[in-house]
Amino acid sequence: MKTKLLLASVLALSVQQTVLAQTDALGYSQVNMTMGNQYQNRVFFNLADANMTSQPANTWDIAFYRNSAFAFGSRINDALDIQVYAVSTNLADWDNINLNNESSWGEPLYNPDQTTDISQGAFEQGP
Asked: How far apart are the first and last CA of the chain?
C-alpha cells in the first residue's frame, strides 16, 4: 500500500511540474495563478526563476518601492480601506492636524487604477 501511495505521489508531482513547464509554439510558458476568493491573496511571480509567492492581501498597509536612486514610490492597501489625505503642504501646520477636522481635508487620495507604473501610489497623487 505504501508503495502505491509513493508511486501515485511521484506521478502527481511529475504531472504538475510538466504542466508548469509546457510552452506554446512561440516558446512562451503558461503559468496559472490564483488570488483566491474575493482576491484574498496577492500573488507574485519571479520571471528569473519562475518562482511564485502568495501572501494574504490583508497583512500589509503601506508598500514601498525602490528600483534605483531615481525610481521609487509607495502604495497603500486600498482593500483595507486605508485613506490618504493631503491635509496641508505647510510643515508648520503638521503639529496642529486634528483627526476631528477630517471632513475639511477634501477627497482621499488613492492608488491609480493602472499597472504601467507601480511607483505612482496614493502618496504621489497629492500636491
From this structure: 69
Rounded distance between C-alpha atoms, residue 28 and residue 22, angstroms: 8
Separation in Å, CA 95 to CA 3, 23, 90, 91, 98: 70, 58, 10, 8, 9
The pLDDT score that the predictor gives to residue 22 is 64
DSSP state of 116: S
The DSSP annotation for 66-100 comes to ESSSS-EEEEE-GGGT--B----S-GGGGGG--GG
Give the helix/strand (H/E) hosting 14.
Answer: helix 2-21
For the chain, give the percent of residues with pLDDT over 90: 18
Can you tell me whether residue 51 is helix, strand or coil? Answer: strand
- Nine cell digits for residue 72: 521609487
What is the pLDDT of the chain when averaged over all its residues?
Answer: 79
Q: CA 28, 34, 36: angle at the middle one, nearest 5? A: 175
Distance CA 107, CA 46 (A): 36
